[in-house]
Structure formats: C-alpha cells, structure tokens
Amino acid sequence: MGRVLAFGTFDLLHFGHVTMLQKAKALGGENADLVVVVSRDSSSLKVKGHPPIFPEDQRLNLIKSLKVVDDAVLGYEGDTWKERLKIIEELNPDIIVLGYDQPVDVNALLDELRKRGLKVKKIVRLEKYGDSAFNSSSKIVRKIMDRFNSS
C-alpha cells in the first residue's frame, strides 16, 4: 500500500477535482492511501492573486467528505513553496500528484525533497480533465456571470 499526496485549493469543488483525486489515488495501486493537502487562504492569495471564495476550513471539510479521500489536512503557510514543504516531510508520501495548473517545477521539487532525505518514488503532473465547460473553477464562475448578466 502506498501513500499518495495530492495538493490543491479546491475552491468551487467540481467534477474535474474529483476526477483528479480518483486518478491520484489510482497511481498508488490497490489499497493506496490518498491524503490531500488543501491550500491555506493566504497561500491561495499569493499564488492566484485573489483569495478563494470559500474559506479554508470549509474547503478542507468538503474534501474530507469525499469517498476517494482517506485524509485531508491544511498546508503550511510560507513565502515560498520550499518553506511550505514541511507538510511533505511530515506526511512522507510515496507519490506526489500535482494538478495541471499548479506552478511547481517538478525537477526542482524532486531535488529539494532528496536534499531533505525524502524517498518520494515519483512526482506526477496530471493533465487537465476533459474539455468540458465545467473543468475549472474559473470557467464555472464565467458561466455563472454570463447567466447572471444575461438575465
């Protein structure tokens, strides 16, 4: 059994998020343990340039309620991603899964983890789910705004 670690903001949870988490868990093999790190409000603001719509405690509890998720925790705050790596050290995953839009250099992350003595087997960046109008939170917001503005 492997431990798979996935990261995300998970604001406006949608089917693309669920599909990403299902694929992440499958990478760990049968009986894999999927742990999800939900980004802090402050981290989301730094990375995306705007705060999430839903506060971190609500996003965390929503992710915890998903059947595919074995556990979920809030990430650590910090000025750089290197400072926020403490959560990876604590959770010690076999596999790390990144979403298509997460601004992390996979090779730099792997190098930094090795410097810290972690034995992560692989880091996988998943592709964007489908071509649906509902595969990103920003598309969903635009669709809502379009509907609101047309009425």
Describe this structure in words.
The chain is of the alpha/beta class and 151 residues long. It has one domain (3-150): Rossmann fold (3-Layer(aba) Sandwich). It is 40% helix and 16% strand. The chain is built from six helices and five strands. Strand 4, helix 5 and strand 5 (122-125) form a beta-alpha-beta unit. The model has no long low-confidence stretch (mean pLDDT 87).
Provide key terms for this protein.
alpha/beta; globular; 5-stranded parallel beta sheet; about 150 residues
Briefly characterize the structure.
The chain has 6 helices and 5 strands. With 151 residues, the protein is an alpha/beta fold.
Tell me the β content.
Answer: 15-25%
How many domains, in number, for the residues? Answer: 1
Number of helices: 6
Radius of gyration from the CA trace?
16 Å
Major beta sheet summary: 5 strands, parallel
| SS elements, strand count | 5
Oligomer: single chain
**Helix percentage range:** 25-40%
The first-to-last residue Cα distance is: 52 Å
- CATH-level-2 architecture: 3-Layer(aba) Sandwich
Q: Would you identify the regions where 5 or more consecutive residues have pLDDT less than 50?
A: none
Q: Overall pLDDT, averaged? A: 87
Task: Return the CATH topology.
Answer: Rossmann fold
Q: CATH first level: which class?
A: Alpha Beta
| SSE pattern, N- to C-terminal | EHEHHEHEHEH
Strand order of the largest sheet: 3-2-1-4-5
